[in-house]
Amino acid sequence: MRTVRRLAGLLGAAALLVAVPGNAEAASPTYAGTTAIGTHNAYDKAKYPYFAQALDSGASLLELDVYTDSLSKRWRVSHSNPLGNDNNCEAAKTPGELYSKSRNQDFGGCLDNIAAWHQLHPDHRPIVFKVEMKNGFNNNGGLGPDEFDTLVRQKLGGIVYKPSDLLGSAYATLDAAARADAWPTRDALKGKVIFELIPGTVEQANPFDSYWTDEEYADHLRDLKAAGTLSEAQAFPAVLGAEPGDPRTSRYDASIRPWFVFFDGNAATYLDNGYDTSFYSANHYILIMTDAAGVSPAISSTDPTDAEVAARLSLLAAHHASLITSDWSAKSAAVLGSVTARS
């Protein structure tokens, strides 16, 4: 039965897809009512020589891997080197310096690139920056949630859409705000960026670390709200991993469950196991489905045809994804900038 539904989704792709290059929108649903495309590990020089080109790509999500380097008190951006930087972020703080400076900068350098690029494109599409905290925060070492917030706020200021923006003055928790669909429209989010935090592979493999990024940042949000200072928070923690039902229930203390409205898991795991993902769209949560190319029937993870991308976007939108990700950096901005209605 699932195969039949998938084939139907593929055949109906042309009818369902609204290909939207750049900022243009055929309608103005809330942000939670749309599905768009993101790029896995967008800091990789093999994908984009410069991070500004990743920003140019049209993708609605760009991923960065960040290590807390406690020896140097730096936030490193790299796939596998916790003590150094290996990335396409450049030493560019102004628009005129983009696409020309030395690369392999730290996380602050990547934020500088975003700020400079934003000056060139102040009405850009809303972009989610998915930050995998590879080895987690190190709060005792001065690289905790507070310091993360301070760095993002110093570099990007008012262009960040924050948890307090979703909460407004009407809701007590992010969960309550999401359930009420308090998200702005995509048009209202033009020129804004959103930070999503997930626990990293090194952190998860560390037998001495049981306090991961997701829980730590959710605790941070809860405590800031209690102190009346939630506006300081710059990011949304995500529940990582595809599970049936509400994965918050088995993982987190009741006091922090309402601070998760981002969910992030493998697309094939959701679909192949027949998980009922309508839970996410019914509550207006943001659901990120990764490895979109791996869903049966699998397509190229690097350079599928435009029609295959359109069909995959349509299929996963029908399964309630908000954002789908793969390694499709070779595709044009018109393709990566596609947006469709979320079922």
UniProtKB/TrEMBL annotation:
Q: Which molecular function term from Gene Ontology is one that the record holds?
A: phosphoric diester hydrolase activity
The protein's matches in InterPro entries, at most eight in alphabetical order, are given as:
PI-PLC-C1, PLC-like_Pdiesterase_TIM-brl
Which terms are listed as keywords in the entry?
A: Lipoprotein, Signal
Gene Ontology terms: biological process:
lipid metabolic process
**Where would one find the signal peptide in this protein?**
1-26
Highest taxon listed in the record's lineage: Bacteria
Name under which the protein is recorded: Lipoprotein
Provide the taxonomic classification: Bacteria, Bacillati, Actinomycetota, Actinomycetes, Kitasatosporales
